[in-house]
Amino acid sequence: QQAIYDMLEGNIEKNVKNQKEMNIYGNIGQKLFIEPAYLKAERNILKLMIDDDIAFKYIVAKNIDELFVLPSHKKIYRLIIKNVKKDNFLFVIESQCTDVESSREWVSILNNKVIYDNMQEKLIDDYIQKIEKYKLEESKRKIMKQLNQSLMENNMDKASNLSKELEMIREKITSMNEKEVKNGK
Predict the structure, then answer these.
(1) Cα–Cα separations (whole angstroms), residue 152 to 73, 144, 160
(2) How far is the C-alpha of 71 from the C-alpha of 105, rounded, in Å?
(3) pLDDT in tens, 52-62
(4) Paired residues of 31 in beta bridges
């Protein structure tokens, strides 16, 4: 219940990389964590690949190998493509997830449930858009840091180029947001 109240009030922190003090309240004493949309999207894409032949073909045709943010998801994606035609391919993939992170993600993917009602393509496109939007947001943050650094160093040429790049990224994000609103998300 507290997580819902905090979400409504905007108190939930969304920084996945720094989880030291994330959503810990002294009076509650528990850690509340909302998984980022891009992470769910990556897992759902991989789950669809192993559960549905139509989705598998559609995803492979999209050539999204470099889209994944997590290295473990890139590894699993490549393993699925490489081993999908083998007997017991799920076991083969599991045995090739040799590091802790990819093993943990593989278990999460296998336990994941995706409901799609024969709308795989639209769902996959939505997942891809979430991942792309996250990557744009990350690029925006990096460029803003570089821009601030350039301004502090009084490097106006670099600052000008970075501000142009930042504006292009903002326009792309705005366009994505408008599409989401238009599609009723």
Answers:
(1) 38, 12, 13
(2) 10
(3) 999 999 999 99
(4) 24
